[in-house]
Amino acid sequence: MDRASWINEYKALHNGNLSRSRAALERFVPQVTNRVIELNAHAKQSKRLSDLKGEHRTTGVLKFMLGVVQPAIILCAGTSALKAVRSLLLPWAPPIIEARHFIYWGREYERELAEKVNSLL
């Protein structure tokens, strides 16, 4: 993936800005010493989980992608992500790290979280 072009396109669609979640991810990911895949718990996006209708709260895409990639570690940002991942009962049982939702991250928290992830790799 051409991440730089993707970020430029993202910013173009968002008046030149990153959301708080995206900004946290852009600071966090480079601190992880291994490859990272970012996935949402649900395939359909909404501003808030409460806005997402029940028929769109499916985890089929998440289950498929995790099954294909089989990550060594899964970091869940927020309770809804944690709940979605735990419900999948993944057969290879990777460590699952529970983290605050991205909007509550800060630089120190991101650094500590990256250290935790890196120590498990």
Q: How large is the count of helical segments?
A: 5
Shape designation? globular
- Helix/strand class: mainly alpha
Tally of DSSP β-strands: 2
Give a verbal description of the structure.
By secondary structure, the chain is mainly alpha-helical. Helix content is 44%, strand content 7%. The protein has one domain (3-120). It has helices at residues 3-13, 20-28, 60-69, 79-87, 107-120; strands spanning 74-77, 96-99. Helix 4 links the parallel strand 1 and strand 2. The longest helix has 14 residues, at 107-120. The two termini are 23 Å apart.
Task: Give keywords.
121 residues; mainly alpha; two-stranded parallel sheet
Give the helices and strands, then pairings.
Blueprint: H1 3-13, H2 20-28, H3 60-69, E1 74-77, H4 79-87, E2 96-99, H5 107-120
Parallel strand pairs: 1-2
Summarize the structure.
By secondary structure, the chain is mainly α. 44% of the residues lie in helices and 7% in strands.
